[in-house]
Amino acid sequence: MENTDYQRDLPLPNPDPEHPPLTWVSRSTDSTCTITQSRYDDEAEIAGQGGAQVAQPGLGAFTRNLGTVEAFAIVISIVIGSGVFTSPGSIDTNVPSPGAALLVWLVGGVLAWTGAVTVAELGTAIPGEGGVQPYLKYIYGDIFGFLAAWTWVVAVMPATLAILSIVFVESIYSSLGVTGEGDSLVHKLLSVVVLVVVSLANSINTKASTRLNNFFVVCKFSAIVALVLAGVVVVIIQLGDRDGQIGGGDWVTKSWFEYRDSLNHDGSITHWTDLSAWEICGHLSAGLYAALWAYSGWDKAIYISAELSAPERQLPLAINTALPTIVLCFITANTAYYVLLPWDVVSTTDSVAVTAITRLLGPVFGIVAAIVICLVVAGSLLGNSFVAGRMAVAAARSGWLPKPLAVLGHLGLEPLATPADETRPLLHPTQNGQETSSPTPKASDAPINALLLSTILSALYILLGSFRALLTFNGLGEYTFFFLTVVGAIILRYREPELERPYKPVVLIPVVFSLVSGFVVVRGAAFAPVQALVLVGLWALGLVFYWVQKRLSAEGQES
């Protein structure tokens, strides 16, 4: 779920009608607009007393005041995150040529585009907030909704936080000219420290964790523009002087689609001419997962529909203009990497942007680039940590996870019992002896228990996994359910043809997504059996938990 600097909105479980879904505030801003989605901060009704509360249904209503231009900008901000700076190395090591790498970025973009269009169809037809869980529950039953929520809480989001923490440290290492240390204990421990600091920041207060978003978005787009401009300058200079030593040089002397041996992150070499077509497909699937990590967030485009003045027209228009723009942006940025770096360097680094600037302009500018990329990654970390806790809260509120995960404001199993009026006045003496009152600061509304769970799981993934293994693990978890969701959209076309669909793309779009994503999931699982087995084990554990919880709930009702 890279995303992204946008505070990735939560795939909320769809509770029964007697228990409306938990909602909260999530903001993503750029120079043109601010999106305020579900009401959590200020408009959620809180049950419990004082500093610790159990989240209750939100009462906020949306104002339909966004147009197509605002929707376009929001979708851009949702999808473009830190992945474009970090995924290229993982892609390059799994493709036989730079041209093939750019094609992988194109295929990933087409998947994101067709997936977003199909989810828009479901989102305008099926009531329910957030993510794919309500759609899976509607199409296949409660157990599939639970498994999706379980997967995001125990696998996808913790893996996302682990990946971002690793990338943060890797960016610092790259600025110092150090690569290939991602598996060292020191690197992993530093990544855990970064993770803990971000989790503590999100434990302070909801509003405190959202105020820096504007700054992070500016850093993100500034970095992309700077990289593309650097690539353009190098192209212009080298076309004028082909013997010049600026940039990587390979882009002008070698074929972009000719097979070349790949130097891997661990020092091994892949000889592409010795591999079978099936083996090459396995590598391409792993590379595609890295691209899909960069495109993650496309499934959140549906969230803006509640604030569009004409969603059935504006949402498809926003998606069908924003996603091609993003694809073009990503392909352009990656072309710049291959212009700025020797081609045998791209696959060796997990912070390719920092490496490119360091080699082009020297260590001082490399440190500046590392700071900017670290800020971008920090924004993604902060946003995804924010969301990870709320996802667990939402699942607990729906009865899918233990209730203590829904406790807000303190660490413990139960809400604190304190006076209900959390803004009661405090009396302060004045100079003339009279007392004046002022409200007490609002207590923390952070889901401490849920954040602790997310931090522990993420730390385990950091210590036991690696950046590239976690990319594949994350992609397998997400796209298994994305595949099921889009197949479900096709099923509904025939099972419920009378279902009102304000937006209905041609059936070829979900068919293309289903075929490609289904192949990628199956081939990716065969190529990375360890990650696939871990995921299957988590699903089995989830099914046991689901059955036990249902059994205990039934026994409780009988007694």
UniProtKB/TrEMBL annotation:
Q: Which InterPro entries match?
A: AA/rel_permease1, AminoAcid_Transporter
User: What is the name of this protein?
Assistant: Transporter
What the entry lists under Gene3D superfamilies is as follows: Amino acid/polyamine transporter I (1.20.1740.10)
Give Gene Ontology CC terms: membrane
Taxonomic lineage from the root: Eukaryota, Fungi, Dikarya, Ascomycota, Pezizomycotina
Q: What is its main location?
A: membrane
Q: Does the keyword Mitochondrion apply?
A: no
What UniProt keywords apply to this chain's record, in alphabetical order? Membrane, Transmembrane, Transmembrane helix
Segment Disordered: which positions? Answer: 1-26, 424-443
Sequence ranges of Polar residues compositional bias: 429-441
In the record, what terms sit under GO molecular function? L-amino acid transmembrane transporter activity
List where in the cell it is found.
Membrane
Q: Which residues cross the membrane?
A: 71-91, 103-122, 143-173, 185-203, 215-237, 275-296, 317-340, 360-382, 450-470, 476-494, 506-526, 532-548
**Which topology term describes how it sits in the membrane?**
Multi-pass membrane protein
